[in-house]
Amino acid sequence: QLGAMAPFRTASILGGSLLTLLSLCLFCLCARMELVAFEMVVTRSEFIRPMWRRYSVRVWPWLWLKVAIGTAFTGVAVALAYRPIKELIASIPASGSTSHGSSSVSFSYILLVCALIYGLLLALKVVSTVLHDFVMPFYILEDVTLPSALQRGFQVVIGEPLTVLGYLLMKVVLSIVGFIFQYAVTVACFIPFYFVMTFGVVIASLVGHKGGPVTTVLLVCLAVVFYVAFMAWSIYISIGTLGYVLTWLTAYGIYFLG
């Protein structure tokens, strides 16, 4: 049995390593694009290549800072959730036995674990927003080192805590409004596809019964083309509308700092 599990274990290690490497590459690209996108909003530049090259070196301190924060939050999450998860597993009744008391205990631990996870995610989002809105502007616009940018951002947050809190609450409201707008625009852009799809299904049902193999192949090809066009349009609209929302929120942060 151990010999039979060896290929599966090797494949799991290789697959996990490949996914980890791919995730790290995407993380590096996203961190670099975050800096480029911020400068694009500030300077209204239209060409990405010069800015992309400019942050080839400066992205690494920013990247390692995000890795350190993510690692710290992961460690805190593991430390806080270890005991509740352990107690949750211990409270699960054995096979074939049911107990109302044990079910209530299990449900309580599930709620506790979910509350811990969502609380840590909320705290991580707050830290990420503070870094993006109060540290990145100094790091990019004033061309200072990352420790200096952290010090400047920390001074802003400590100097006017109520104003910063109001800013964060207002950003939550603007985010909700922006994503509602994005959803409405996305749905409106999909309406023509719905009409075309309905019309295509009606035509296919009418022609498919009377046509032969050639007609069937043609209908399948048209369906594939329509599906590819629909997916391309969906990605284009989703990324485009999300870009408008993120640009709007970034501009609001720049306006707040003056």
Describe this structure in words.
The protein is an all-alpha fold and 258 residues long. It has 6 helices and no strands. The chain has helices at 2-43, 48-91, 100-141, 146-159, 161-210, 213-257. The protein is extended and about 75 Å long.
Beta percentage is under 5%
Termini separation: 67 Å
| Largest sheet descriptor | none
Strand/helix succession: HHHHHH
Structural class by secondary-structure content: mainly alpha
Shape: extended
Number of strands: 0
| Total count of helical runs of at least 4 residues | 6
Helix percent band: over 70%
In the predicted model, the low-confidence regions spanning at least 5 consecutive residues are none
* Rg from alpha-carbon coordinates: 26 Å
Mean pLDDT: 80
Question: Brief overview, please?
Answer:
Helix 1 packs across helix 2, helix 1 crosses helix 6 and helix 3 packs across helix 4. The chain is built from 6 helices and no strands.
Question: Helices and strands in order, then pairings?
Answer:
Blueprint: H1 2-43, H2 48-91, H3 100-141, H4 146-159, H5 161-210, H6 213-257
Helix pairs in contact: 1-2, 1-6, 2-3, 3-4, 5-6
Task: Provide keyphrases for this structure.
258 residues; 92% helix; mainly alpha
